[in-house]
Amino acid sequence: MSYRIREIRETEYGLLEDFIYEAIYVPEGAKRPPRDITKTPEQQVYFRDFGKSKDDYGFVAVIGDEVVGAVWGRIMHDFGHIDEETPSLALAIHQGHRGKGLGTALMKKFMEKLREEGYQYVSLSVQKSNPALRLYEKLGFEVVGTTMGETEEEIVMRRRLN
pLDDT below 50 — which residues of the chain? Predict the structure, then answer.
């Protein structure tokens, strides 16, 4: 499988709403939430007005002409928020392209960019039962707590960038 990782283009910012829906972890046997969950403030913080802040960064994975994955982040008050100096990120790969190394490649490129921009840390939130947790651990993320107002199942992870 041949793919490219590149910076997200302004014309692709609209895809982030689709990718945040794709990023919602649904445990086996559970029902997927309705698509309009992306209209909630908790989800919109990830993509609303993306590209308007100096802290907005994103990359996409492209196969042929199709964008099949994305990683993006910003300083935001999301589930993975730590402080005003630590960007939080979101990662999503289309279902049919998971397990092929795209997530790892996207994450490495994203962390490299943040390091170049002078950030010390990056954070995220993930459910303990989400298979992506293993990817984050492999990439050096460490658990720093649980998300605000959430259960012990939802954790916040952070990685030092330098």
Answer: none
Specify whether the CB–CB gap between 45 and 76 falls below 8 A: yes
pTM of the entire predicted model: 0.93
Q: What is the pLDDT of residues 78-99, one digit of tens each?
A: 999 999 999 999 999 999 999 9
Write out the E strands in the chain: 4-7, 57-63, 66-74, 88-93, 121-127, 142-146, 154-160
Residue listed under structure tokens 């994203």: 110
Cα torsion through 119, 150, 70, 10, rounded to 10: -70
The count of C-alpha atoms lying within 13 angstroms of the C-alpha of 39, restricted to the half-sphere facing its C-beta, is: 4
